[in-house]
Amino acid sequence: MTATERPLTQAQRQERLDAAYRYCAAVNAEHGKSYHLATRLLTADRRPAVHALYAAARTADDLVDHPGADPERDLADWSRALLDELEAGWSDDPVRLATVHTYRRYRIPVEHLVDFLAAMTSDLTVTGYADIAALDRYMWGSASVIGLQVLPVLGTAPGVSREEAAPHAIALGEAFQLTNFLRDVAEDADRGRVYLPADVMAAHGVTREQIEAKRYDARFRALMQEMVAIVRRRYDDAAPGTPMLAPESRDCVRAATALYGGILTEIERADFRVLDRRVTVSRPRRLGIFARRLASAQAVRLRQRRA
């Protein structure tokens, strides 16, 4: 702030914060259609925080996936600004402002943000992973902590601690991330990165060069079939966590799980042909899932009002 600028009034600060959250919601709606659809099932007080966390993750990811002249510096500058602003409690950037407010409101540990930013930074230099254990270490920052960030926003059921629900939140974050990896094999290869474990690829006789050349064959099909099974087990690990959440948040998670899990089904229906196309869940299917979960969410809120 310069000497000629006046401090913002409380009303002006609230106006900017509201605008920041609206901006994050627009980012979510544009880039994460399935995720955004699921967030509409959340209560109005929780929804903006989830949009903020999504927008922050998307912004950092875009600095890596759609780089400027100096992506390492751009990401470092953005990361440093966010961490400084988190301590200060304010930002003039809409995504960072909403993220700062969300972190402080829900007392999300800053370590989750640090680990996420470290994972994004590694994407600038790491191009592959030797095995599932190595991929899991990467996903701690890129996916696991996302689940842990969202957990305080969703809330837990009476008598359930965050610590009890945390392993399932971690598993769901990983399941979503792995689903994206399988859907985006070709897109990631174009950026010079392969998120399929090298040892699993080798076991099926699939090489990195084959993926980069987008050559589909029986070996690639078998590789993807095994990877889909691995991802489904992560969804199974996550499933016990949904009943641990606050009742009014469960339908959002169930919808997101059905929407992302549906991508795996569509990959199977495409006979695992993901090298020459981007598999998606159809709009009628997405809306059908949303409608079913909406009816359930409305019933939960009605019961809560009557209680």
From TrEMBL:
Q: Which Gene3D superfamilies match?
A: Farnesyl Diphosphate Synthase
- Claim: Transferase is one of the keywords in the record: yes
- Lineage top rank: taxon: Bacteria
> Entry's SUPFAM superfamilies?
Terpenoid synthases
* Keywords assigned: Transferase
Keyword Transferase in the entry? The reply is: yes
Q: Which GO terms describe its molecular function?
A: geranylgeranyl diphosphate synthase activity; squalene synthase [NAD(P)H] activity
Pfam family, any one = SQS_PSY
Q: Look up the record and give one Gene Ontology term from the biological process aspect.
A: carotenoid biosynthetic process
For this protein, the record's InterPro entries field holds: Isoprenoid_synthase_dom_sf, Squ/phyt_synthse, Squalene/phytoene_synthase_CS, Trans_IPPS_bact-type, Trans_IPPS_HH
Its annotated pathway reads: Carotenoid biosynthesis; phytoene biosynthesis
Q: What is this protein called?
A: Phytoene synthase
**Provenance organism:** Geodermatophilus telluris
Instruction: List the taxonomic lineage.
Output: Bacteria, Bacillati, Actinomycetota, Actinomycetes, Geodermatophilales
